[in-house]
Design brief:
This protein is of the alpha/beta class. It folds into 2 domains: 185 residues, NAD(P)-binding Rossmann-like Domain (Rossmann fold); 98 residues. It is built from 13 helices and 15 strands. The strands form 5 sheets. A 7-stranded parallel beta sheet has the order 3-2-1-4-5-6-11, with helices on both faces. A two-stranded parallel ribbon has the order 7-10. A two-stranded parallel ribbon has the order 8-13. Strand 1, helix 1 and strand 2 form a beta-alpha-beta unit. The longest helix is centred in the first third of the chain and has 22 residues. Bound molecules: NADP nicotinamide-adenine-dinucleotide phosphate (NAP). NADP nicotinamide-adenine-dinucleotide phosphate binds next to helix 1 and strand 5.
C-alpha cells in the first residue's frame, strides 16, 4: 500500500512511519519545518501544510496514494492559544482538504484527533458521546472530525487518542521524559490525584493508525488508548518506580481544588471506552505495565539516573528503533 504521511517529523508521525515500514508499506513522509529522517522511508519532503492545496495537491494527484495518515497538527492547548490562526489552518483546514482529496482519490484518510474534544466531566467516554471542548485546541480538533466525516465519507476515520507516551530522539517530549528531565534538574513535580488520563504508547498507536489504513471496512469516529485509566499522580508514581526511583522524593500529590484558577480549564476525567474498535483490530490494547516497559531513560539523564539508582542504562531497541 502507498501511504502519504503528514507530520512525519513529529512524535507520533515518526512512530507511525516506522510502523508502516514494519508492515511492508511504501511511505512518502512529509515534515513541516524539518525534513523527516526515518530508517526505511525512501521518500521524504518538507511542505508548509497551512496552505495544503498549494503545497501538496499536485503530489496527491500524481502519487494517487491508497491512504493518507494525518499526524500534522498544533498538538497542545498552549500552542493553539499562542498561534490561533495556525491552529485553525493546520488542525481544521488541513484535515478538511485531506478528506476531500481522499474521497476524490477513493483512498483512505486516517486522521488523529484527541480526547480533549470532551470536557472531562463524565469520564468513560463512548465514541457516540457528545463532545464539549473546553479550549481552542479541542474546538479545532472537533471541527476537523466533523469535516473529515462529511467530506471523507466512508473513506475516512477520525481516531481520538489520549496522552501519548514513548521515547523521542531528543528525550524531552513525552511524559516520562519530561518528568526525568525535571527530576534530574533537582525539581519535584506536583501531579493531580483527581485528574484521570488513559495513556497510550506511540508505537502501539502507530500500528493502529496503519492497521486502520489496511481495514477499508472501518470508517467514522473511534477511540483508542491503553487499557488503564489512572490519575496523573498514579502515572507519575508508576513511572518513578519503573525507573527505580522513590516517588515521594520527586512527586507532590495535588488536586484541582488546591490548584484553583490554574486548573480551571483542565479536563478532570478523559477516560475512554474502547468499544467497538478494540474488538475489530488485530493490534492489541496495551496494559500500562507494557507501556512502562517501552520507556527508556533519556540520554541526557543517564548519568544522574545511574547515580540515583546504581543502575546502568542499557540502550535497547524498541521495535527495532534505537534512540
Ligand atoms: N502528543 C500527545 O500526547 C497527543 C495526544 C492526543 C492527540 N494528539 C494528536 O496527535 C497528532 C500528532 O501530535 P504530536 O504529539 O506527534 O505532535 P508534534 O510532535 O508536535 O508533531 C507535529 C507535526 O506537525 C508538523 N507541522 C507543524 N506545523 C506544520 C506546518 N505548518 N506544515 C506542515 N507540518 C507541520 C510538524 O512538523 P515540523 O516539526 O517538521 O515543523 C510535526 O511533524 C496531533 O494531531 C495531535 O493533536 C497528540
Amino acid at each position: 500500500m502507498k501511504i502519504i504521511l503528514t507530520g512525519a517529523t513529529g512524535f507520533l508521525g515518526r512512530e507511525t512511519a516506522l510502523a508502516a515500514v514494519r508492515r511492508g508499506h511504501q511511505v512518502i513522509a512529509i515534515g513541516g519545518s524539518r525534513m523527516p529522517e526515518i530508517p526505511g522511508v525512501g521518500r521524504t519532503l518538507q511542505a508548509d501544510l497551512t496552505e495544503p492545496q498549494q503545497a501538496i495537491e499536485t503530489l496527491l494527484l500524481n502519487e494517487f496514494p491508497d491512504a493518507i495518515i494525518n499526524c500534522a497538527g498544533v498538538p497542545t492547548m498552549e500552542a493553539c492559544d499562542a498561534a490561533p490562526e495556525k491552529a485553525e489552518k493546520l488542525n481544521a483546514g488541513l484535515p478538511r482538504f485531506l478528506a476531500m482529496m481522499a474521497n476524490h482519490l477513493s483512498g483512505r484518510l486516517v486522521h488523529v484527533s484527541t480526547d480533549m474534544v470532551f470536557d472531562g466531566d463524565k469520564g468513560n467516554y463512548e465514541h457516540t458521546d457528545k463532545p464539549i471542548p473546553l479550549n481552542l485546541y479541542g474546538q479545532t480538533k472537533l471541527m476537523a472530525e466533523k469535516d473529515v466525516l462529511q467530506f471523507g465519507k466512508n473513506h475516512a476515520v477520525a481516531l481520538r487518542v489520549p496522552v501519548i507516551s514513548g521515547n523521542t530522539p531528543a528525550g524531552d517530549k513525552s511524559l516520562h521524559e519530561r518528568l526525568l528531565v525535571q527530576w534530574s534538574a533537582g525539581k519535584t513535580t506536583p501531579l493531580f490525584t483527581d485528574e484521570i488520563r488513559q495513556p497510550v504508547s506511540a508505537s502501539n498507536l502507530g500500528d493502529v493508525l496503519v492497521e486502520l489504513c489496511e481495514r477499508s471496512n472501518l470508517s467514522g469516529v473511534y477511540h483508542w488508548a491503553g487499557a488503564e485509566a489512572l490519575s496523573r499522580h498514579e502515572i507519575g508514581v508508576r513511572i518513578a518506580k519503573h525507573f527505580g526511583l522513590a516517588p515521594e522524593k520527586f512527586i507532590t500529590p495535588t488536586t484541582h481544588a488546591a490548584a484553583g484558577e490554574k486548573a480551571a480549564r483542565r479536563a478532570r476525567d478523559l477516560s475512554f471506552i474502547l468499544h467497538p474498535l478494540q474488538g475489530k483490530l488485530k493490534t492489541r490494547v496495551q496494559s500500562f505495565e507494557e507501556i512502562l516497559s517501552e520507556m527508556q531513560v533519556p540520554a541526557q539523564c543517564a548519568v544522574w539516573h545511574a547515580e540515583q539508582t546504581g543502575r546502568t542504562v542499557v540502550r535497547r531497541l524498541v521495535k527495532g528503533v534505537d534512540f
